[in-house]
Amino acid sequence: MKLVTAIIRPQKLDAIRNSLESYGVQGLTISQASGYGRQRGHTEVYRGAEYTVDLLPKIRIEVLVSDEQADDIVDVLVATANTGHAGDGKVWLVDVQEAVRVRTGERGEAAI
Q: Which UniProt key words apply to this protein (predicted)?
């Protein structure tokens, strides 16, 4: 099993959810996050004062998938999140040793 984690632009969330649901993903976790990458934030002017926004709003998506689905899920995430501009995000995979469905006690891929 793999845990696919993606950090994306907030405005891409609905499109990514729809793409993942179309692919067959049945569950995911979404969290609000803040951060920056190569774009290093940006400057804004508010009431005549210029200030730097260091941490940009982002969305963190986590999906637990079988090994066979992992590469396809990454492809779906990358294709849907891509705008071609800095700040599109990152996607990474982590091996998962065990998963347990709390309600039923199912283990392994049956718990996905």
A: Nucleotide-binding, Phosphoprotein, Transcription, Transcription regulation
